[in-house]
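Reference record
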Amino acid sequence: MDFEIRRFQKKEADETSAVIERALLVSNAPDYPPEIIQEMIALYSPGGVLERGAEGHFYVLRSGGKIIGCGGIAPYMGSLSESILVTIFVLPEYQGTGAGRKIVETLEADEYFLRAERISVHSSITARDFYLKLGYGYRGGVSAPDEEGCIHMEKRR
């Protein structure tokens, strides 16, 4: 597929939020109760997307003139030696096409990744196998989700 990836622009908050909402409702809904999905949709409202975009380096992936995915990387709790991948979502119809891999490859070329010794990701149950394929492992060997439904994963450099 032909993808274009670049840094997020504030004017894209509504479209990016809609991509995240659709991914949550279609892809993540089988793994989480409806109230958790609704909390996540509220978290990633356009205002929430603007907040995520300001916390680190946030990217959008486009195909055919529309946003089909997004993802970000930021310092983890202000650390210079640890970073975290955040807000990685792809429209359901583009999952399995290399779109998610393109986003992660872009994040792994970012300065926040390159300076870090450890990169964390709080994976959804839905995305666990995706991150395993990309070389991320379970933090502390714990593969079970925490009380919020996140699986703590990492990659060391």
About this structure: The longest strand covers residues 66-75.
